[in-house]
């Protein structure tokens, strides 16, 4: 049996709802650890009983105040492994929606640590200059970097307990990176070799550990025209922000596959929006698509 982890915030709670709905729709049963700061998200707390009746147990994990949630991914993965005692663990970002039956993911991790290629740097070669800076970080931790190709998105990872070294090393490198930057990850955009620290350090971890990896391409997160194993609406604009018609008229950008899939997963068992809100969102997407075809 596997355990799933995610991290939510007030603004991402409706994303977490769709993730949970998609997990139920695709046959997952087991524990889902939901990391959060402050009080337990009300919508998720209210749905906990319903989910439990369907075989999904929500376990709320409160993080201390301070710091950015996405740097706590290794922390919640390790906590879930230690607490749940299951043989495998997954982390899934709370804006992701699952599109394949869960048994596929259980099979995937038999091949190694399951990872998805990112929309950027998907074909990163083994001599890419960013790897120079990652190698220095790895060596500073007393480890030896290995040659590797590819670049993964940190929104999804799955692994068996025997490969937990990956998570320990990811956590160790994140802590070392923060220590070298005076205890902070802020302002990273101007630093050579690092754009998004949790993700770049995860890719450094891929070079630092001697465990098998199963890295699929960007199609795993549907970064293309075809639906993959999941959808991941990267960027600041999320499906629940709507504004589809305005984006079509002003920017010439129509609804994404991730938007359509998201709104197909918001009606239960966790109710993310009222029936009226769901109808309006779907109508707005239809009008936006018509606008894009005409203009």
What does this structure look like?
Helices cover 40% and strands 17% of the residues. It is an alpha/beta fold and 295 residues long. It is globular. The model has no long low-confidence stretch (mean pLDDT 93). The strands form 2 sheets. The protein has a 7-stranded mixed beta sheet, sandwiched between helices. A two-stranded antiparallel ribbon has the order 5-9. The protein is built from 10 helices and 9 strands. It folds into 2 domains: 2-221, Spore Coat Polysaccharide Biosynthesis Protein SpsA, Chain A, CATH 3.90.550; 234-294, no CATH class. InterPro entries: Nucleotide-diphossugar_trans (IPR029044).
Helical residue percent? Answer: 40-55%
Give the total of domains: 2
- The average pLDDT value, as a whole number, equals 93
Shape: globular
Strand % is 15-25%
- CATH superfamily name of the largest domain? Spore Coat Polysaccharide Biosynthesis Protein SpsA, Chain A
Order of helical and strand elements: EHEHEHEEHEHEHHEEHHH
The CATH topology name of the largest domain reads: Spore Coat Polysaccharide Biosynthesis Protein SpsA, Chain A
Radius of gyration: 19 Å
Outline the low-pLDDT stretches.
none
- Strand arrangement within the widest β-sheet reads 3-2-1-4-7-6-8
The assigned CATH architecture of the largest domain is: Alpha-Beta Complex
For the terminal residues, how far apart are their CA atoms? 50 Å
């Amino acid at each position: 049996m596997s355990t799933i982890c995610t991290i939510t915030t007030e603004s991402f709670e409706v994303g977490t709802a769709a993730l949970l709905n998609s997990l139920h729709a695709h046959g997952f049963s087991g524990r889902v650890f939901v990391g959060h700061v402050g009080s337990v998200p009300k919508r998720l707390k209210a749905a906990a009983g319903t989910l439990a009746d369907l075989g999904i147990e929500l376990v709320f994990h409160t993080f201390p105040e301070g710091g950015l949630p996405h740097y706590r991914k290794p922390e919640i993965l390790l906590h879930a492994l230690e607490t749940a005692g299951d043989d495998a663990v997954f982390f899934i970002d709370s804006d992701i929606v699952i599109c394949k039956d869960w048994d596929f993911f259980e099979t995937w991790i038999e091949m190694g640590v399951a990872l998805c290629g990112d929309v950027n740097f998907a074909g990163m070669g083994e001599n890419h200059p960013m790897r120079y800076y990652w190698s220095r970080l790895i060596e500073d931790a007393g480890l030896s970097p290995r040659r590797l190709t590819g670049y993964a998105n940190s929104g999804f990872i799955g692994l068996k307990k025997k490969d937990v070294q990956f998570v320990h090393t990811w956590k160790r490198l994140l802590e070392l990176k923060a220590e070298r930057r005076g205890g902070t990850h802020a302002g990273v955009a101007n630093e050579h070799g690092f754009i998004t620290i949790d993700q770049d350090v995860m890719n450094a971890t891929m070079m630092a550990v001697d465990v098998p990896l199963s890295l699929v391409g960007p199609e795993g997160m549907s970064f293309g025209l075809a639906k993959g194993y999941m959808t991941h609406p990267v960027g600041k604009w999320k499906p629940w922000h709507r504004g589809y018609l305005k984006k079509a008229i002003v920017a010439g950008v129509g609804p994404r596959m991730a938007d359509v899939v998201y709104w197909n997963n918001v009606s239960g068992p966790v109710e993310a929006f009222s029936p009226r809100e769901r109808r309006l969102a779907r109508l707005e997407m239809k009008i936006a698509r018509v606008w894009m075809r005409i203009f």
